[in-house]
Every structure is written in C-alpha cells, then in structure tokens.
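Researcher: I've got a protein sequence and the SMILES for pyridoxal-5'-phosphate. Could you write out the 3D structure of the bound complex as structure tokens? I'd like something to compare against our soaking experiments later this week.
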Amino acid sequence: MPNDFVPVARPHLGQEEVSAAGRAILSGWVTQGPEVAAFEREFAEFVGAPHACAVSSGTTALHLALLAVGVRPGDEVITVSHSYIATANSIRYCGAKPVFVDIDPATFNIDPRKIEPALSKRTRAILCVHQMGMPCDLKAILEVARKHQLPVVEDAACAIGSEISWQDRWERIGRPHGDVACFSFHPRKLLTTGDGGMLTTADAEIDHKLRLWRQHGMSVPDTVRHSSREVVFESYPELGFNYRLTDIQAAVGREQLKRLPEAIAQRRQMAARYRQLLADIPGLVLPAEPEWARTNWQSYCVRLPEATNQRQVMQHMLDEGIATRRGIMCAHLEPAYSAPATWRCAQIECKPDGSCPNLAESERAQSRGVILPLFSQITEEQQDRVARALRQACSIRIQG
Ligand SMILES: *Cc1c(COP(=O)(O)O)cnc(C)c1O
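Model: Sure. Here is the predicted complex with pyridoxal-5'-phosphate in place.
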C-alpha cells in the first residue's frame, strides 16, 4: 500500500501495550488470572456496572448471555438481521431461532415499534444491538420487554464509551440497562485485545453462571486452587465452555481502557468535522445522533445518493487511495441463513425467500451505506481527502 493510503480503521496500540503484555508473559501466569480480574474491575468501574466478566470474544459473550437469560432449543429471540452476523449466530448456538425486526433508517438500529408484532409464544428474549456504537432506543425496547416479561440482552460489541440519557443523567452503555450487555475487543472496535469480550450485569446470579460456564463449568477456578493452602478438588456440575480471556490480552486491555476517554473525544470531533465537510453533497445522508444518545462513532456510515452505485463509489475512493466498507450486512441475505428454518421475520406469514419485504430498510442500509475511514490517528488532511473523493464519486454518478 502506498504511504498516503487511508485505511478504514486502525487500532491505536503503542509501547504501553507492549510493556503490559510483556509484564503478563514474564509473570508466569498467562491465561485467565490476576490481570483478567483487574481488567474486569476497571472495566466495571468505567461503564458503571456492578459485575463484569471477561471472555474470549464478543461472540462468546453473546452466547453466554443468551444462555444466562434462559434461551434454550426451540425458543425464539427478537433481534435485527442488519448487524454483524455473530449477533444472529449466537442465537442459533443456543438452538434457538432469530426473529428479525427491521431497522429505523435514521439510526440503523432496531425499530422498537416493530418488536411487538414479532412476538410469539416461543419468544424468550430480546437481543438489541447498539449498531456501530450508536445507542439503540433502550427506553422503548425495555417498555415492550417489561410488558411481556422478556429479558433484554444488549449487543454492545461496538458501544464501549457510548452514552445514553437515562433519568436525566448521561450513563455509559453497559451499566447495563437491559439484563446483560456484551462487548467485543476485536481490532475494529475502540478497545482491542486482539480478540476478547466482556459481559456486564447487575445480577449476581447471572454473573456467577457466566464465570462458571466460561471455564468448563469448573466449580473451583484454577486461580483459587493455585492460591489455596489446602488440597482442593474441583467438580463440573454443569456443561461449560473454554471461553477464557488470557492474562496477556487483559494486560493489553487495561492499557487500552486508559486511552478510551481521549479516543472517544477525538472521534466525536472528527465526526463533527465530517458532518461539516460532507453536509452539502446532494442526496448524501449523514448519520444522525438522537438527542438522548452520545455515540463513540465507532463507524461513520453515510447513505449514498439514490443515483449512485455503491460499488463504483467505493472503487473510485479506493483508486484515490482511500479504503471504505459497505454498510453493515444483513444476516438473512447470507447463504448460512438460506434455509427457511434458520430464522423468521416479524410477519409470521412471510415465507422468506432470499430478499424479505419486511426487512426492506435493513436491505437498503446494506446496499446504500458506505463506512468512511475514522480512527484515532486520522489527520485533518486525510479527512479532507476522503471528503473530496466522496464528493467527486457522488457527482460523477449523478451526472452519468
Ligand atoms: C464485532 C461484533 C460482534 C462480534 O464480536 P467478536 O469479538 O468479533 O466476536 C458482534 N456483534 C456486533 C454488532 C459486532 O460489531
């Protein structure tokens, strides 16, 4: 890649993370141990949650969260198709079926008005997503959930540091406002440990289950056995998994957490700058923040003017040395979801056959959305180049 190539995202990792990983390696304890415990405490404090439990990825966090709120084979879980495919996959890991609800095109998030018509006797939970970091309308979602006594799991994979106005205060996503919130530390997110994840909850019983299941269902964690003065025999009362985060990763995560407040402030500034630079491109729709939300702007996704072609716009930008990504993809359009039994949509009578009329906004968001470069070290000059190239790409198509 040429020197002046602008990537779509880039993790911010430095000497601090290198030293932290080295410290963990040289300590002699490299998997889940004291660094994980410290990372959990610091993360819980950051989001304001009573409990935080570290796991190996955002996906394994979702799997455990759904199990913890009682999702079992044959159940249904309300969610969106328009998300990273891991959201829907995690429901299938439980032997349950995702029920896809369409999004609100303004925020790319679940349209809460469409949840109630999608409920059935089999509905066991709601899995809502804070897409690309933008908080979803938790107030409206929780209202429906309480009315029907359904637990709410938040897919907060992208939303670390995002805030929502709650009873006249700004609160971080993950307190949690639902029953459990799930975060990801994949390199595309604001905080990365290579791979990794975290679950937060206010429910001590749920937290206990998560800790059991992430480590093979082992009754006595190896950290406890290791520090015990007496011989301790463990047992395995339940089927568990190996979903551990390592201490090397957690040490890196603790350094990443320190960078977060500044990283979010920077991104909010850059997003405001994009808004200025792109405001007058005809037909281009910029992402909008509801007044009750403050996003971390993990991704800045614009909607292209109707007369443009997504692939051509993205190719034009790539030719100018600028990477972009298309809008978030829809799970129901992927071959892994081609069997009708794998999901259903809000309208019970709709027989899914490829494209689904009940998910029209989701499909449009995939085919019209383009994610622009945004990362900690992006320069104003690079942002100007992105704006210039996008303006050009849009105008060529409108005239052509
Ligand atoms: C990244 C992401 C996931 C998966 O997280 P991993 O850590 O990659 O497993 C799940 N849901 C959403 C919305 C994501 O963006």
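Model: The chain has a mean pLDDT of 95. Residues 247-278 form the longest helix (32 residues).
Researcher: Great, I'll pass this along to the crystallography team.
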